[in-house]
């Protein structure tokens, strides 16, 4: 049977990326994030998603070491923040992240947001890191089709991953189709949306039907669309529960009902409306 340890997407360069990972946004550095990472790894998770901006890379690195799980079994993602972008700045930011995580090679390095004046130079730096073997895969986060086309049309390497806000209320179908056509793996952040999605009657009814939690239904919905996902939690019970999504599937009726929830609601910024000037 497929499990959280064995369920992987194959990126365009052949690298295998786990379909479900732990997101650690807003998890406090120190014991909180270390406990969350260790709980996830003990429950079978092999993918951890952090970022320079989260200020917890060092603790994530410590938790990985303390877990005793061989490095080659883990898939670690981090990201370059907006005020670190630009060619030289990105190369320096990468080295900072790598040292904090205690890794020789990072599995996936992403541009956190498409800062308009610098993201192309930042991508050039990611290409350099990839060609030098310092990262196994490179990608972007919060990129629209327009941003992706700029990279595709002007650079040697396509992003291998695009991590975006993606949940039933923001079912970015056009972006998903574009990424699939271009062999770019879409990855969902905030897959559980906020409380009202977890309490939504449609989701709760489907959860009851399958004897699952609303969160498990939302994570499974991503998987049914072949979207990688990184639900965030620091609660051990929820971390374990969020990984138990490989023993059921959603049927056509479930998918149709969930699709009806799409109303374009964002809980984060639209990439074109992010206040980049405040993060220089």
UniProtKB/TrEMBL annotation:
Q: Which UniProt keywords apply?
A: NADP, Oxidoreductase
Q: Which organism is it from?
A: Aliibacillus thermotolerans
Q: Name the source's superkingdom.
A: Bacteria
Q: Please report which protein family the annotation says this sequence is part of.
A: Belongs to the aldo/keto reductase family.
Q: What is this protein called?
A: Aldo/keto reductase
Q: Which Pfam families match?
A: Aldo_ket_red
UniProt domain NADP-dependent oxidoreductase: residue ranges? 27-262
Q: Is Transcription one of the keywords UniProt gives this record?
A: no
Keyword NADP listed? The answer is yes
